Amino acid sequence: MASTLADRLSRLVKTMRGQARITETNVQEMLREVRMALLEADVALPVVRDFVARVKDKALGAEVVGSLTPGQALVGIVHKELAATMGELDEKGQLKAGASDINLHTQPPAVILMAGLQGAGKTTTTAKLAKHLIEKRKKKVLTVSGDVYRPAAIEQLKTVTAQAGAEWFPSTPDQKPRDIALAALDHARRHYFDVLLVDTAGRLAIDEALMAEIRELHATLKPVETLFVVDAMQGQDAINTAKAFKEALPLTGVVLTKLDGDSRGGAALSVRAITGVPIKFAGVSEKIDGLEAFNAERHAGRVLG
Ligand code: GDP
């Protein structure tokens, strides 16, 4: 098994024992370890390069203060920079304490469009979000599936929506996704729903027809949130998927699913860097309550290993 970044850095810290300052050689060695470990954690190469360059700037200028050894100071710099890369910063450049929740600042019904590849966890996450919005935000929530290619997907959404305690709007495979969307929106308006969650079709790989379809749905629904759902286990592939969805749609947030798996979660760095939008939630189990606000600080610890 590959060493974690924490292992690698702690070995380095040992070799630095007794040193009073961080030398340029220490920084170079550390950066090499960081680069290797991030690649092993499946972070995309351009993202790794960029990250390493930022850590280098910070480390070379760093003053070692208090009781920290230079080695510990370096580990601290890496951890902080990891959290800053995956999380959201305030105007002072500090990591924001709370995660970004769903934006509902719009005339109801607030539409949330779910985008992502098949199997990423869109349907499951739609229901998890419905439950979150009902319980934590006290909203009246409607779900609808635009996946006209897989009748089983429509049924799946019906089942999980019931588990979430939300309402489900029926759709059938012979309808056009745009017509489904318009009918659901009309129903949501007439019945005073606060939120309409729209699950969409996914393919196993990026597909132009699928992208055109979801763009049309976006134009029709004018969602306040367009969430890119991505499987944390996807590793390096997450970068291509993220690029394609970012080019197709004005994304507003990311949900990183399957963080209960054994991946180091390096996809979080890649996806945050590529989409430029906040990772709002993390999926942590198959169950309906397996959704957490994404915590960049904690996730940095996981990527470090
Ligand atoms: P979709 O095709 O994007 O709608 O994906 P689904 O919602 O059907 O999810 C695909 C599979 O991943 C299902 O077996 C889900 O139970 C599972 N899944 C979704 N999210 C998570 C998660 O956060 N953790 C785990 N362990 N499984 C998940």
TrEMBL record:
One biological process term in Gene Ontology: SRP-dependent cotranslational protein targeting to membrane
Function: Involved in targeting and insertion of nascent membrane proteins into the cytoplasmic membrane. Binds to the hydrophobic signal sequence of the ribosome-nascent chain (RNC) as it emerges from the ribosomes. The SRP-RNC complex is then targeted to the cytoplasmic membrane where it interacts with the SRP receptor FtsY. Interaction with FtsY leads to the transfer of the RNC complex to the Sec translocase for insertion into the membrane, the hydrolysis of GTP by both Ffh and FtsY, and the dissociation of the SRP-FtsY complex into the individual components.
Organism lineage string: Bacteria, Pseudomonadati, Pseudomonadota, Betaproteobacteria, Burkholderiales
Record protein name field: Signal recognition particle protein
Species of provenance: Inhella inkyongensis
Whole sequence portion shown: 1 to 305 of 461
Annotated SRP54-type proteins GTP-binding domain residues: 278-291
UniProt keyword terms in alphabetical order: Cytoplasm, GTP-binding, Hydrolase, Nucleotide-binding, Ribonucleoprotein, RNA-binding, Signal recognition particle
Comment, domains: Composed of three domains: the N-terminal N domain, which is responsible for interactions with the ribosome, the central G domain, which binds GTP, and the C-terminal M domain, which binds the RNA and the signal sequence of the RNC.
EC number: 3.6.5.4
Keyword Ribonucleoprotein: yes
